[in-house]
Task: structure prediction
Amino acid sequence: MQQSWLDVLVTIPDPRGRHGRQSPIPSLLAALLLAVMSAQAALRGMGLWARAHADWLTRHLRFTATGYPPERLSGRSFVG
Result:
């Protein structure tokens, strides 16, 4: 059986502390991967890309109203 990259992202453990988990780690990683595939190399560019695509990302990647990608894509998203 073939797995999608989203299936693989779900298996990655979340290294963040309990209080740092406002958005699911698979959603954050998927948004970062999509930004990289859209030629964004730096976190700032990835955040800007996510902000420009926030509606789509929120609908398709299980972000909450308070934890949607433009507010979550930063280096602090990955530390507890």
